Amino acid sequence: MAYTPQSPNRSHSDDETTSNRRLYNPYKDLNLPTQTLYHLPTQPEFLFQEESLAQRRSWGENITYYTGIGYLAGATAGAAQGLGTAVKAIEPTDTLKLKINRILNGSGHKGRQIGNRCGVIGLMYAGLESGMVAWRDTDDVINSVVAGLATGALYKAASGPRAAALAGALGGVVVGAAVAGKPYLKRYIPL
């Protein structure tokens, strides 16, 4: 749909979708005598009807999102942990350059380690959740909790069955709490 300039006196009865649109004047800061207004949509527009029915990210977007968020959160937490360890390891005889080097090396090393672990966990979770959605052909809480259980169990599978069961239970509880707390988070924190 092409947007053509509209007169500000245009009646709303001409277009039944005017309630879903807002007036926009790109030249309002120039103080020009003429007004050119555009009727822009206030909601997303989709090329195909099927796209408007989907209320979630695609599997590729899901994998990218969870892997990136996991790596970023893990790298930040690891850098903070490495910073604390490096500050404790500083000796009184160290020069300023040596202190800075020790802090940067400690933060970078721990940040990479924990960031990579959290990124892998995010990748596994996103893949399992997208697989569950495709397999069950529904998008509900069960998919998320089962993906959390499976992610924890798979991540710690090499450590033995007991560690895998504990990690799976922890993954399911964490995801269940996150899914249950999401409406409250949206209510109190505008995103």
UniProtKB/TrEMBL annotation:
One of the GO BP terms on file: protein import into mitochondrial matrix
Keywords: Membrane, Transmembrane, Transmembrane helix
Source taxon at top rank: Eukaryota
Subcellular location(s) per record: Membrane
Stored Pfam families: Tim17
GO cellular component, one term: TIM23 mitochondrial import inner membrane translocase complex
Residue ranges, compositional bias (Polar residues): 1-10
Signal sequence, start to end: none
Residue segments, region Disordered: 1-26
Molecular function via GO: protein transmembrane transporter activity
Membrane topology value: Multi-pass membrane protein
InterPro entries per UniProt: Tim23-like
PANTHER family: SD19278P, TIM23
Name of the protein in question: Mitochondrial import inner membrane translocase subunit TIM23
Organism for this UniProt entry: Salvia splendens (Scarlet sage)
Lineage, uppermost ranks: Eukaryota, Viridiplantae, Streptophyta, Embryophyta, Tracheophyta
